[in-house]
Automatic annotation (TrEMBL):
Keyword annotations of the record: Cell cycle, Cell division, Chromosome partition, Cytoplasm
Highest taxon above the source species: Bacteria
Keyword Transferase: no
Source organism (scientific name): Pedobacter agri
Protein name: SMC-Scp complex subunit ScpB
Gene3D superfamilies: Winged helix-like DNA-binding domain superfamily/Winged helix DNA-binding domain (1.10.10.10)
Length: 188
């Protein structure tokens, strides 16, 4: 029987995972398929070897730490080419309303639909439903206010899709506000 090569198994797990995979998920899968008991030290050693392997110019992909997990992504020098394919294939774009709703949820989570609608000034039922269907947001419980409305938060797919490890990596409003976005005169 061939020797159990933990690094290749870790590589296969990361490759086959649609979303980023955590070290704990890797350990669970390894321990379920091997006679040996693996721990974080084994996985981190394998991750280092995999990172080193894909850091060379021979590969168009690299191992990236995202959202407290690991995922293979295309290297930056190939983003423009891959982006063209994605634009061509993209038939499920988010509408302006859905993008506005997603931004509000990302910055104010957990948040109720009523709070979203108060910020946007329009009904957001459809946008929230589409974001739930695309799994970019998730239900995060119920508020402790009368009627116990549902709370919405961004999902781990949102973190993967936007390449974030933590929500504090979202651009701050002060970073994206420009002079042309202001109304009136700035009097100091």
């Amino acid at each position: 029987m061939p020797k159990f090569d933990v690094t290749r198994h870790v590589e296969a797990l990361i490759f086959s995972s649609v979303q980023s995979i955590t070290v704990q998920e890797i350990i669970l899968a390894l321990n379920a398929t091997s006679d040996h008991e693996y721990h974080e030290t084994h996985v981190f050693a394998s991750l280092d070897l995999i990172k080193e392997k894909y850091s060379h110019g021979d590969f168009a992909i690299e191992l990236v730490n995202l959202n407290s997990g690991y995922q293979f992504l295309t290297k930056k020098e190939y983003h423009a080419t891959v982006n063209q394919l994605q634009l061509h294939r993209s038939k499920k774009k988010l509408s302006q309303a859905a993008m506005e709703t997603l931004a509000i949820i990302a910055y104010r989570q957990p948040i109720t639909k009523l709070e979203i609608e108060q910020i946007r000034g329009v009904n957001s039922d459809y946008s929230v439903q589409r974001l739930l269907e695309k799994e970019l947001i998730s239900i995060d419980g119920k508020a402790e206010t009368p009627g116990r409305p549902i709370l919405y938060s961004t999902s781990s797919l949102f973190m993967d899709y936007f390449g974030l490890n933590h929500l504090n990596q979202l651009p701050q409003l002060k970073d994206i506000s420009r002079e042309e976005n202001t109304v009136g005169e700035n009097i100091e």
